[in-house]
């Protein structure tokens, strides 16, 4: 029986965490786009590595002074290298943090160039995974109309997640169209 706090998995847990985290980070938080918060995920943006290092240290100090810790294993950074500081790295307590060339945030792949190449590949893979998981895509006993509805309800949302507002190039749109056509043709042949 819980006497103080909430049961693990309670519907109020995430809400309570967000309220507390909001108060704890109020002093160091900046407006978007320089700071983006979602639950316990934080993205800090800066114009150069030195500014990012300072900002990161402010966050670390603010959180640790309130008995919260930043995970060294999960913390990573990405640069666009426009400042030419490729050798300099971001550190936490003298330990270099992992530098990545892309990372996943809220289900989307982010790249330094701002292009969508990895995101499109990721979305296509998600679409194929959902297509395979439906289990009815190649079954001739399933009516074509029902297959189309399943495709629209299960496959397309996975392929288009977070791309509705993305500035896609013609080549990226074409890749998605080619994959969708392959899926639909496979259903007819199956």
TrEMBL record:
InterPro entries: DNA/RNA_pol_sf, Rev_trsase/Diguanyl_cyclase, RT_dom. Pfam families: RVT_1 (PF00078). It comes from the Eukaryota. Signal peptide: none annotated. PROSITE patterns: RT_POL (PS50878). GO terms for biological process: DNA biosynthetic process. Residues 1-110 form the Reverse transcriptase domain. SUPFAM superfamilies: DNA/RNA polymerases (SSF56672). This is Reverse transcriptase domain-containing protein.
